[in-house]
Amino acid sequence: MTLQSGLTEDQLFDQLISSIVHTAWLALGRMKHPHTGKVETNLKQAAITIDMLDMLYKRLDRSLKPEEDAYLSSLLGELKDTYEEEIRRQSSGNSSDAPEANA
């Protein structure tokens, strides 16, 4: 099958993962939104995005190259740790810095 973009499947896979991870960092309030310039936290969206990446990782388990496996495992660990940190921060009453966005 000819790919319309001209990219290799490895490059497309990297783009897919990057897109999902970018969405997670935005939802965790760790990046400015590219259109609004605001940093907003939406923990529900963050949880969904992290769960989607985790599901993808589990489903691709046997077909991942060792470096892809290590990379995804590391990313998931970092995202999950950051999510838990944000949950603790908001539950301690410090949520005024990054209000949860309404989605």
Please tell me about this protein's structure.
This protein has one domain (10-90). The chain is built from three helices and no strands. The chain has helices at 9-27, 43-59, 66-91. Helix 1 packs antiparallel against helix 2 (43-59) and helix 2 runs antiparallel to helix 3 (66-91). The protein is globular and about 50 Å long. Mean pLDDT is 90; it is low at 96-103.
Strand-residue proportion: under 5%
Overall average residue pLDDT: 90
Which structural class do the helices and strands define?
A: mainly alpha
Residue share in helix: 55-70%
Shape descriptor reads globular
Count of distinct strands: 0
Number of domains: 1
Major sheet summary line: none
Our Rg estimate from Cα atoms comes to 16 Å
Count of DSSP-assigned helices: 3
Uncertain spans, ≥5 residues at pLDDT below 50?
Answer: 96-103
Distance between the termini: 37 Å
Write the element-wise H/E pattern from the N-terminal end onward: HHH
Based on the model shown, name its key terms:
103 residues; mainly alpha; 3 helices; 0% strand; globular; disordered C terminus
Topology:
Elements: H1 9-27, H2 43-59, H3 66-91
Helix pairs in contact: 1-2, 2-3
